[in-house]
Amino acid sequence: MDAMKTLALFVVTALAEIVGCYLPYLWLKKGATPWLLLPAALSLTLFAWLLTLHPTAAGRIYAAYGGVYVCVAVLWLWAVDAVKPSIWDIVGAAVSLAGMGIIMFAPRSTS
Questions:
Q1: Which residue from 1, 38, 73, 78 lies 20 to 30 Å from 11 (Cα-Cα)?
Q2: What is the dihedral of CA 52, 55, 59, 61, to 10 degrees?
Q3: CB under 8 Å to 85, separation ≥6 — which residues?
Q4: Contact 77/83 with Cβ under 8 angstroms?
Q5: CA 51 to CA 30: how far, in whole Å?
Q6: Can you tell me the distance from the alpha carbon of 28 to that of 90, in angstroms, rounded to the nearest whole number?
Q7: Positive/negative CA dihedral, 63, 22, 51, 89
Q8: Does the CA dihedral 79-83-84-90 come out positive or negative?
Q9: If 0-12 CB within 10 Å is exposed, 13-18 middle and 19+ buried, where does residue 92 land?
Q10: Where are the domains of the chain?
Q11: Which residues are CB-neighbours of 102 under 8 A, at least 6 positions away?
């Protein structure tokens, strides 16, 4: 899987996880309808399935995915929560994304 497809799949995966967690948050903290738990469960199911689409070891996928998740969460902070990320949010997200790149795309020995 090439780098752009991998990154795109991780972004979609992160959105599925964030939506799956954000909807119960709306119910528990903001008084929204408990019916939001149904799409939340579906979104978290989608999240788990999307993680299985990568053709490498599960532990490597989970570790690398975390870096993309951090970046998407910072974007969510800005777009949905209407909180402008600080320079440290951005630097942290960039470092996380660099870590994802190293984990997913570093050369590996075949032994």
A1: 38
A2: -80
A3: 74, 77, 78, 93
A4: yes
A5: 30
A6: 28
A7: negative
A8: negative
A9: middle
A10: 3-105
A11: none
For the chain, how many residues are written? 111
**Tokens standing for residue 104:** 């997913």
State the DSSP code for 82. Answer: -
Residues 31-73 have pLDDT tens digits of 999 999 999 999 999 999 999 998 888 888 999 999 999 999 9
d(CA 104, CA 26): 34
Q: Kind and range of the H or E element at 41?
A: helix 37-51
Rounded to 5 degrees, what angle do the CA atoms 43, 45, 46 make? 65
Query: How many angstroms separate the CA atoms of 111 and 105, rounded?
Result: 17
Query: Is the whole-model pTM more than 0.85?
Result: yes
Q: Which residue has the tokens 């032994």?
A: 111
Rounded CA separation 32/107 (Å): 47
Copy the structure tokens of residue 76. Answer: 């969510």
